[in-house]
């Protein structure tokens, strides 16, 4: 009797699963999902990018897989990406519920906020505030160059020694955005500062890694003491640190004379009065953490990737040195405007972004209404994943789609030229908020360091390994480097 009931329960569960995972009419095709897991077991959870490319080869540029019983549409290649994120931008501008990242942020802030009035107002506020505090201006240049001086001092002090650049570049990128948001930089050993660095590095690996996928796929496991609990705990810890900083600002600020982003947000709340929605404290805290993440992880990981490529290809590094020396002609530091006279350096930086593919699957989207993509019908609230790596390495879009080739960004006259398939920060209305700051940081930091130092791959370290560590932001594998001083 008991065995019969168990068999009946199993059959019922399987039947319900098959009904729930039956693809709707004219939905993008894809592999048959398995009970409970969906297509999770058909992906390499350490890094699913190659598996997604294979599935695209089999099922087309727009196909579907299942996370448990939840369908997800995968977008591959530039043409499909542009149709979804530019031509039909509003249709695909939503953010999904029920994922680890959406639970971390509770749908607030900017990155994981639902498409709508609150998201538009907060994104507009963030971009306006960044501009007010110098983005694209000389004041921001000085802020970045000031932080680079700390990096340069560290490298000069340890010239000729083995150096681990991971923490160094994370610290610098994080301190730049901290100075904009909190009005001051932090010593690299500061408790709060190190907690932020740790949270961003760990949560990036967890959120799109194996444990993040398990969290997203199997809700029954979410309360178990598994590694994704670390992400939730660390996020809350840093959020409480930021709340303390906000409370300090409340006590010391002068209204309408903002020192930083926090003061600007408090001014906005005052201006709106008692009914300040959607500007309120929890939204502010999440937005500040969004800016921290957007302004730190992508930039620092791209710098580490660029340095790795420069060491692996010393002839490319030497050509950068020659161009920088020629253009700066004795100047102590570059300006952002100097980039227009450095086509090869610009090409190297952009090729580093392309080859590193720092945001391989961007941030997951969802549809805001019933829509269509490349002839397929996609219902409202469908999870959508854009495979940005597929565009950055697409055969027909690049002269050299594989490996590291700055010529991808140079025309026949040797001038810098950015192909339309260059979209490392995604495209459309939800393109990465930190892109403008990242562009300025990448150029000024790398050019300043190349002016003063030669990066050297250590003897006996074997061949450089370009295989990335997968996560929301993809990072180079840890490595050691050496530097040689070129000029004071």
Automatic annotation (TrEMBL):
It is found in: Membrane. It comes from the Eukaryota. Its main location: membrane. Keywords: Heme, Iron, Membrane, Metal-binding, Monooxygenase, Oxidoreductase, Signal. GO terms for cellular component: membrane. Residues 1-21 form the signal peptide. GO terms for molecular function: metal ion binding; monooxygenase activity. PANTHER family: CYTOCHROME P450 2F2-RELATED, CYTOCHROME P450 508A4-RELATED. Belongs to the cytochrome P450 family. This is Cytochrome P450 2F2-like. The lineage of its organism: Eukaryota, Metazoa, Chordata, Craniata, Vertebrata.
